[in-house]
Amino acid sequence: MKTVSGLKIKLFADGADKQGMLEMYKNPMIQGFTTNPTIMRKAGITDYQAFALDVLETIKDKSISFEVFADEFNEMEEQARQIASWSNNVMVKIPVTNTKGEFAGKLIKKLSDDGIALNITAILTLDQIQAVADCLSPNTPAIVSVFAGRIADTGIDPVPVMQEALSILKHLPKAQLLWASPRELLNVVQANDVGCHIITATHDILNKLNLLGKDLVDYSLDTVKMFYRDAQAAGFQIAALETA
Fold first, then answer.
1. Of 49, 58, 48, 46, nearest to 20 (Cα)?
2. Contact criterion met (CB below 8 Å) for 163 and 174
3. 174 in helix, strand or coil?
4. Residue pair 191/166 in contact by the 8 Å Cβ criterion
């Protein structure tokens, strides 16, 4: 049975709620952070740069990824270089393609060769992983974010994909494989057992880490007590059967 202390994988927190991020920052188990434009929009952020710089005032010593949001590669490059200048602990997220499906390989290679730490995101196929690996400099830190959760959403087991991804990346000493979009705590265990370097998860999933290794009999009893407690709190009643 897995326990939190037995995990070898790095735990990153995925989100854009400042208060939640700062709470996770205080947790020694959390070693980094990821964001993206979608979760930032859901969090109500309207000034991208102001939010990022504000968070970086506190989170200075743990990896944090901020994503470009342009669609043309020349504009992506300009944004990437600006984002990289914000702090030494920033990883610049580059989507594997633009919205036209054009591979971002030339940009990835240019930035990686220039020493900019990248987080290549929205990857779902082994061909994409191989193509990205071919563009990364062995001398520059990089994260390869494979959306294992979205792979699973299509009915495909992501574990073999992640195993093969590790093999593809093994010649890149500074590249780390990240299991992205987990759906449940089990995915943390799966990613750890596969040998992924990092998993990024929402705060809801990370808050369940204390359940790792929990005795299932005890958990069953906790569940029964929850049902009873909630029924009592709701004041539920069932009328007695009338007898003839």
1. 58
2. no
3. coil
4. no
User: Quick count: other Cβ atoms within 10 Å of Cβ 153?
Assistant: 12
User: Whole-model pTM above 0.90?
Assistant: yes
Architecture of domain 4-212: Alpha-Beta Barrel (3.20)
Confidence of residue 242 (pLDDT cuts 50, 70, 90): confident
Tens digits of residue pLDDT in 180-205: 999 999 999 999 999 999 999 999 99
The interaxial angle of helices 158-169 and 186-194, nearest 10 deg, is: 40
Q: Would you place residue 3 in the very low, low, confident or very high pLDDT band (cuts 50, 70, 90)?
A: confident
- Whole-angstrom distance, CA of residue 148 vs CA of residue 125: 10
Greatest distance between any 2 Cα atoms in the chain: 88
Rounded average pLDDT over 217-239: 97
Which residues contact residue 136 at a Cβ distance below 8 angstroms, ignoring those fewer than 6 apart? 108, 109, 112, 118, 120, 142, 144, 172, 175
- SS3 call for 33: strand
**45 Cβ contact partners less than 8 Å away, ≥ 6 residues apart:** 16, 51
Token pair recorded at residue 103: 């591979």
**94 in Cβ contact with 107 (< 8 Å):** yes
Measured CA to CA, the distance from residue 64 to residue 42 in angstroms comes to 19
Cα–Cα distance between 151 and 129 in angstroms, integer?
14
Residue type, 236: F
